[in-house]
Amino acid sequence: MGKITGFLEFDRKEEGYTAVEKRIKNYQEFTKPLKEAELTDQGARCMDCGIPFCHSGCPLGNLIPDFNDAVYQKKWEKASKILHATNNFPEFTGRLCPAPCEEACVLGINEDPVTIENIEKNIAETAFKKGWIKAEPPKVRTGKKVAIIGSGPAGLAAAQQLNRAGHWVTVFERDEKVGGLLRYGIPDFKMEKHIIDRRLSILEEEGIQFKTGVHVGKDVNAKDLEKEYDALLLSGGATIRRKLPISGADLNGVVQAMDFLPQNNRRVDGIKDLGNEILAEGKDVIVIGGGDTGSDCIGTSIRQGASSVTNFEIMPMASKNRPENQPWPFWPMRLRTSSSHKEGADRVFSISTKEFIGDDQGNLKALKTVEVKWDIQPGQRPRLKEIPGSEKEWKTDLVLLALGFTGSETNVAEQLGLEMDDRTNIKASTNDFKTNLPGVFVAGDQRRGQSLIVWAISEGRDAAHHMDTYLMGSSNLALKGEGDLPRI
Q1: Dihedral angle sign, alpha carbons of residues 80, 81, 84, 85
Q2: pLDDT of 140 over the 60 cut
Q3: Any idea where the domains of the chain sit in the sequence?
Q4: CATH class of 145-239+406-472
Q5: What are the pLDDT digits (tens) for 355-385?
Q6: Among the residues of 114-256, which ranges form H helices?
Q7: Is the pLDDT confidence value at 23 over 50?
Q8: What's the Cα-to-Cα distance from 465 to each of 82, 140, 462, 483, rounded to whole Å?
């Protein structure tokens, strides 16, 4: 695929960034797109490798060598059709996915891998610009009604697939706008929200109905929906935030990341009534948690005008190279430095927070830490050990807890009598996504726990296939790595 000798002729080239001092003054996306000729060169780097391991790295099973070849051939509309056959929303994944496909790229064994994610984004953007992405309502309706609870990537993918099969689909979202964490968890500087709205207008034109500001489990009893609709999909995500159970955790200034980020997204959206505002302006901010959410808190704090931003990570600093015990094509736990880290944050590894310290008014003023090391023994779980004499006090006005999630909310599951696992995720098999209640399915983080956007889309698509089979006896909707076929 691509040019036979392309991987020998062209080096990997990525998008550039707007200078830090300029981009931190706003919340706009700041990547500088490659020229078309540069993109075709990148597509040319895709090898005729025989077995494309990028397929195994991609949870969607995207036909990566095929669309890379189409880009190299400058057949952008063909590339768009190939990409959309397995991925409903490449404009989302092309911006937000950590690209496990690139870590599995055969070229990555001894060279820089193909820029798969960037090619994907540019295919989608070219397709929108050229008007190739249009609403395609189903020609025939089955008369079956499906309700989807949650409008994140899993719910949206399932909605589009089920609508394509001819079912009437209604998506319920408790927030004021559709998108879930895409809208309220991802900062605009990573994905501006008109990108979501552009796709939503197509979904609505295709016949999907969205009901926002409806909290199923509170405003509407889930049991009533289960009776009204022929099938029900739960795709509400894993939204229970992990806490840090130490002294002072209830002080003013100790804030969950998913209170801080959604509020700022609403602020950027022009919403005035935000309640108790959380702002980093003029404050010494400490972000606890080294993942993507922590990185998003860093970039947002810097744009709000924080005096300083420090990032704590309890794990040791990883190597920039692939660890020996995580060989290709597996996902390696290597050091990853985000664009937000480069905007002015200090990173501290192997550190554990022991106590939050407040003033007489209950406001955060400092925290205490201790350095740690991990004792790793063969056949045993790693143990965390504190290093004596390494205690330190840090001045801080705002701590943002980016510690991930522990599972999904339980009110809907309790109303429906669904079985849960020990992580408060709803039990369902990956074979058919069925819960213990007939006609009720679950997909995405609410089934598998906190994961990637690309996994959410994959789960939504596969769940739609099995829901269609439940409703009609069989389904032509695609499973992972397959293209969609019309119902015969």
Answers
A1: negative
A2: yes
A3: 6-130, 145-239+406-472, 243-403
A4: alpha beta
A5: 999 999 999 999 999 999 999 888 888 899 9
A6: 116-130, 153-164, 181-184, 194-205, 222-228
A7: yes
A8: 19, 17, 5, 12
Can you give the pLDDT at residue 173?
Answer: 98
> Is the pLDDT score of 488 beyond 70?
no
Within a 10 A sphere around the Cβ of 380, how many other Cβ atoms? Answer: 8
Mean pLDDT over residues 463-488, rounded? 81
For the question of whether the overall pTM of this predicted structure is more than 0.90, the answer is yes
Residue 366's CB: how many other CB atoms inside 10 A? 18
Question: CB neighbours of 377 closer than 8 A, spacing ≥ 6?
Answer: 383
Closest CA to 180 of 289, 262, 292: 262
Distant-in-sequence, close-in-space partners of 81: CB < 8 Å, separation ≥ 6 = none
Listed residue (293, 295, 296, 259) closest to 279, CA to CA: 259
Q: Provide the pairing of β-strand 364-375 with 383-386.
A: antiparallel
- In this prediction, residue 483 carries a pLDDT of 57
Q: Which amino acid is it at 54?
A: C
Rounded Cα–Cα distance for residues 50 and 153 (Å): 32
Question: Is residue 420 within 8 Å of residue 410, measured between CB atoms?
Answer: yes
- How far the first Cα of the chain sits from its last, in Å, is 33
CB 284 within 8 A of CB 398: yes
Written in H, E and C, the secondary structure of 38-73 is: HHHHHHHCCCCCCCCCHHHHCCCCCCHHHHHHHHHC
Q: What per-residue confidence (pLDDT) applies to 481?
A: 60
Cα(458)–Cα(43) distance, rounded to whole angstroms? 24
Map residue 256 onto helix, strand or coil: strand
**What phi and psi, each to the nearest 5 degrees, are found at residue 367?**
-145, 160
pLDDT digits (tens, 9 = 90+) for 297-347: 999 999 999 999 999 999 999 999 999 889 999 999 999 999 999 999 999
User: Does residue 16 register a pLDDT over 70?
Assistant: yes
CB-based contact 436:420 (threshold 8 Å): no
Structure tokens at 91: 């404009």
The number of beta carbons lying within 10 Å of the beta carbon of residue 17 is: 14
Q: Which residue has the tokens 């849960």?
A: 420
What is the third-level CATH fold of 243-403?
A: FAD/NAD(P)-binding domain (3.50.50)
Q: Is 139 left (phi over 0), alpha (psi -120 to 50) or beta?
A: alpha
Could you report the per-residue pLDDT of 172-199, keeping only the tens digit for each? 999 999 999 999 999 999 999 999 999 9
Pairwise CA distance, residues 176 & 235, whole Å: 17
Q: Among all chains, which residue has been given the structure tokens 């979202």?
A: 173
Q: Do the domains spanning 145-239+406-472 and 243-403 agree at the CATH topology level?
A: yes
Name the phi and psi angles at 222, rounded to 5: -60, -30
User: Where does 6-130 sit in CATH, by number?
Assistant: 1.10.1060.10
